[in-house]
Design goal:
Shape: globular
Largest sheet: 7 strands, parallel
Number of helices: 19
Radius of gyration: 27 Å
Helix content: 25-40%
Number of strands: 27
CATH topology of the largest domain: Rossmann fold
Number of domains: 4
CATH superfamily of the largest domain: P-loop containing nucleotide triphosphate hydrolases
Bound molecules: adenosine-5'-diphosphate, zinc ion
CATH architecture of the largest domain: 3-Layer(aba) Sandwich
Strand order of the largest sheet: 8-9-7-10-11-6-12
């Protein structure tokens, strides 16, 4: 007997090993084994068994093949669907099958440490807590086809397009409940940032011990024990961030992706998968239903729904008929003309803060830039302080009193004179969250103010502490980055202020408008969640920009109709697909040369449209230079087979390190 084995290395190939007689009864597809590999001993995954003697001798070839040393598991760690899913991932995302498999498993299993044994006498956890709310007629209409598909076990993909607080989560809960009644499990993906105790409590109070919550703060040990409970069928509902899509649930019937448009669903290390695509594939292989939920769907998803690939269901009313908040845009160009100096707050925003404080209501202020100033520049010669290793602009952090690189976290002293012209005119420019906080203290000395960004929440538990204090009314003004933009539900908030709508508009990315629209809509959605009316003020230097205007009117459709022709004209997603190839090297020449060679080679294959090579907007990160090559092709074509040999050739090394990013969401 010959076994086909893959290992967790970037080698795109299955290796043949002979199965010694003593192991023939133990081996099975999907189990882990120990195999000799070069001079090492590695964990291997059995992906196939060849028992036909003639065939196996032919497959094995004339060379001597080695024996498998041992079979680790008593029951497979991968079922047929997971083997199929990981094989698909390897093809789609240009990684090896072994890498795709290891990506789905907890660390303990990858290291070959624990063996999987059949479960003994564990009973499925009971639940009797579930109660469903009476749905509104709109909710009922939305849920009916989903329940029907679950009853008939049909594979279907729904885009649940529902404004904030329209009752999407209630629909998820009821769909999960129906799946449970049929003995089917569910996976719920949520962005890591919304895995707050408040959010998961809703699931726990409905489904009790059947729920397994996975988040990044869990230790490897706890994570593995949750994995085991799930594999043994004790947990029927798994909630977690993108990696939870690989949860080993028994009899999967339903996959839900909340906030489907979130960029955190894309993994930025190999394999660079998108949880939405993996979810859809897994659902296809297991005949499951998929619900993608969002108040601001990704253009890809909305386009797919409009063209019939997904089924569109809409929730257009808020529960309890709460009004969406009124949004006012402040033209900062006019504000600038009114004042001598650039201020953090416009007059209207300053007044609104003051009004809200005297009315004893709460305020959230949003700025997607941490630190104090955004940069330090010389007013005389124009020199801007940059990180030597990353060529990125250094940001001043007042708490550390240093300039900090946001890419490699290097901290350097603030120069007193301009390093370039030696003049004394070097000054801080731009505002970050720390400056907003300090300005608030200056203008409103008696207000209770807290700041929430990655600097302020680096200590364990501080994230929850700040949110709890805000919820209990111990904080008047909460200042924060995108950490406060999403998902939070504080009914006492009467004012939401966006300090600058423009930070994301100016990104070198074709999705800059989409990101801006999404962020502003989400931020605005933090207001008006209670009974009293609320207002939103957006400060912008581009008040006429369609993304800003559409967001201020809560009008997704208007944004979509403006954005889509541009995408079509430029040939970007959703009309075409993209693959990004990045070449990195310590010397810029080498990165550029490898990228040029690669671009020339794919240009040789006629069907592709190649962009580049181009230097990455972030040309130098942690001392290595980056050049990109983009490949555009029609969504209905699959060229992975033609690309594969070329990718393998360049991955071996051409003086630069190459990475492949399929369907990239990050253009740098
Ligand atoms: P979304 O997920 O769209 O933001 P939620 O499901 O969280 O919306 O619903 C918003 C609020 O309305 C929640 O507090 C929820 O408990 C409540 N809610 C949802 N559906 C109903 C319903 N049918 N009847 C009463 N309250 C509901
Ligand atoms: Zn740096």
């Amino acid at each position: 007997m010959i076994a086909e084995i893959v290992v967790g290395l970037p080698i795109d190939k299955a290796f043949h090993y002979t199965v010694p007689n003593s192991l023939e009864t133990k081996i099975a597809v999907g189990k882990r084994v120990w195999v000799p590999f070069g001079k090492k001993r590695l964990v291997g995954y059995v992906v196939g068994l060849i028992t036909d003697e003639l065939k196996s001798s032919r497959e094995a070839g004339p060379y001597q093949i080695k024996d498998i040393e041992d079979v680790i598991d008593e029951i497979p760690v991968l079922d047929e669907a997971m083997l199929g899913l990981t094989a698909w991932m390897s093809g789609y995302y240009f990684c090896s099958r072994g890498e795709a498999i290891e990506n789905t498993l907890p660390l303990a299993l990858r290291k070959g440490k624990t063996k999987m044994i059949p479960r003994q006498g564990t009973t499925e956890r009971s639940y009797d807590k579930s109660f469903d709310l009476d749905l509104t007629s709109q909710q009922r209409k939305a849920l009916t086809p989903i329940l029907e598909d679950l009853d008939k076990r049909r594979h279907e993909i729904y885009l649940l397009f529902g404004i904030t607080a329209s009752g999407k989560t209630e629909l998820y809960l009821q769909a999960i409940n129906r799946a449970l009644k049929h003995g089917m499990s569910s996976i719920v993906l949520v962005p890591e940032i919304s895995l707050t105790p408040q959010a998961t409590e809703r699931f726990k109070s409905r489904f009790g011990d059947k729920v397994s919550v996975i988040h990044s703060r869990l230790s490897a040990g706890v994570r593995f024990s949750e994995w085991q409970k799930t594999a043994q069928g004790q947990c029927r509902v798994v909630i977690g961030p993108r990696s939870a899509i690989f949860a080993p649930v028994k009899n999967l019937g339903l996959v839900i992706i909340d906030e489907e448009h979130e960029t955190s669903y894309k993994q930025e290390d190999s394999p660079r998968y998108h949880a939405r695509e993996v979810a859809i594939k897994r659902a296809e292989l297991t005949n499951s239903t998929v619900i993608l939920g969002s108040a601001t769907p990704s253009l890809e998803a909305y386009h797919a729904a409009k063209t019939g690939r997904y089924r569109l269901i809409c929730l257009t009313e808020r529960i309890l008929k709460r009004e969406l908040p009124k949004v006012k845009i402040v033209d900062m160009r006019k504000e600038l003309a009114k004042r001598k100096r650039l201020a953090v707050f416009s007059f209207p925003l300053e007044e609104a803060i003051s009004r809200s404080l005297s009315g004893k209501r709460q305020i959230m202020l949003f700025l997607n830039r941490r630190g104090f100033s955004t940069h330090l520049d010389c007013k005389k010669c124009g020199y801007v302080c940059e990180c030597q290793k990353c060529k990125s602009v250094l940001v001043y952090h007042s708490d550390a009193g240093k300039l900090v690189c946001h890419y490699c976290n290097r901290k350097v002293d603030v120069p007193r004179i301009c390093p370039s012209c030696k003049g004394a005119y070097i000054k801080f420019s731009g505002s970050g969250t720390q400056k907003v906080e300090s300005e608030l203290h200056r203008l409103f000395p008696s207000a209770r103010i807290a700041r929430m960004d990655t600097d302020a929440t680096s200590k364990k538990g501080s994230h929850e502490r700040i949110l709890d204090a805000f919820k209990e009314g111990k904080i008047d003004i909460l200042v924060g980055t995108q950490m406060i933009a999403k998902g939070l539900d504080f009914p006492q908030v009467s004012l939401v202020g966006v300090i600058s709508a423009d930070t994301s508009l100016n990104l070198p990315d074709f999705r800059a408008s989409e990101r801006t629209f999404d962020l502003l809509t989400q931020v605005a959605g933090r207001a008006g969640r209670g009974e009293a009316p609320a207002e939103v003020i957006i400060q912008s230097y581009a008040p006429d920009n369609y993304a800003v205007v559409a967001a201020s009117r809560h009008d997704y459709e208007a944004f979509y109709e403006k954005e889509v022709p541009t995408r079509r004209f430029l040939g970007f997603p959703p009309y075409n697909r993209l693959i990004k190839f990045t070449f990195r090297a310590g010397k810029e020449e080498k990165a550029k040369k490898a990228a040029s060679d690669f671009a020339a080679r794919i240009r040789g294959i006629k069907v592709f449209k190649v962009l580049g090579p181009v230097p990455s907007p972030l040309i130098k990160v942690r001392g290595s230079y980056r050049w990109n090559v983009f490949l555009k092709f029609r969504t209905d074509k699959d060229f992975s087979l033609q690309l594969r040999p070329l990718v393998a050739e360049f991955k071996k090394g051409r003086g630069a390190y190459m990475t492949v990013d399929v369907d990239p969401i990050n253009m740098v």
